[in-house]
Write a structure and sequence with these properties.
Number of helices: 8
Structural class: mainly alpha
């Protein structure tokens, strides 16, 4: 039971407190240019969740092997990028072979999901936190779901700003970045941090 509670806590930590969009402002511009809509959000979020979970699992499995290497701190990022490129290549080959039409239509979304700072960050955070393979899988799943949550919040903010009378100089990306900043501050306060007075 304690293991299940620990895994659930880890999932919630990755989902809310370690939300890479709002707490660290990573890759927000890529999320702002993805062709959204409900189908686009779900597709990108689910692909990204699957990739972060898989990549975190692979990193958790490879970490004990790589720990014995000399100068592992320099080699680890290269190994992660090679693993991501190989995983992307295999995924593209399989989808091109089995689902050619789908792959042709959504190749851009697939590429953005694979080569995203969340995937590399999930691998790095998994290893530096010392998680085992199961904790790595749960943490990667939580990080992917946090990006899906962030995408929904950004899309909702975009819809609300579409009906507001925003000054011309702030329309588009500046208004969306202000919105992301406000959500970031609210999440920052949610975790119990206090701003300097």
């Amino acid at each position: 039971m304690n293991t299940l509670i620990g895994l659930f806590t880890l999932l919630l930590t990755a989902l809310v407190l370690e939300n890479a969009i709002f707490s660290r402002a990573l890759d927000v511009t890529a999320l702002l240019v993805i062709p959204f809509g409900k189908k686009g959000i779900w597709l990108f979020g689910l692909i990204l969740t699957g990739i972060t979970a898989t990549a975190s699992l692979i990193a958790g499995i490879l970490n004990p092997v790589m720990s014995s290497w000399e100068n592992v701190q320099y080699l680890r990022p290269v190994v992660y990028i090679v693993v991501l490129a190989a995983l992307y290549g295999v995924t593209c080959l399989v989808l091109n072979w089995r689902k050619k039409d789908w792959f042709h239509d959504y190749n851009t979304v697939l590429t953005m999901a694979f080569f995203n700072c969340a995937v590399y960050g999930a691998m790095a955070l998994t290893v530096y936190s010392g998680f085992n393979w199961l904790e790595s899988l749960v943490y990667g799943l939580g990080l992917g779901l946090s990006f899906l949550l962030a995408a929904f919040l950004l899309e909702q903010g975009r819809r609300c700003m579409g009906i507001c009378n925003i000054p011309k100089a702030f329309r588009g990306l500046p208004a969306e970045l202000v919105y992301v900043g406000l959500v970031s501050l609210s999440l920052y306060g949610l975790v119990g941090h206090q701003l300097a007075a």
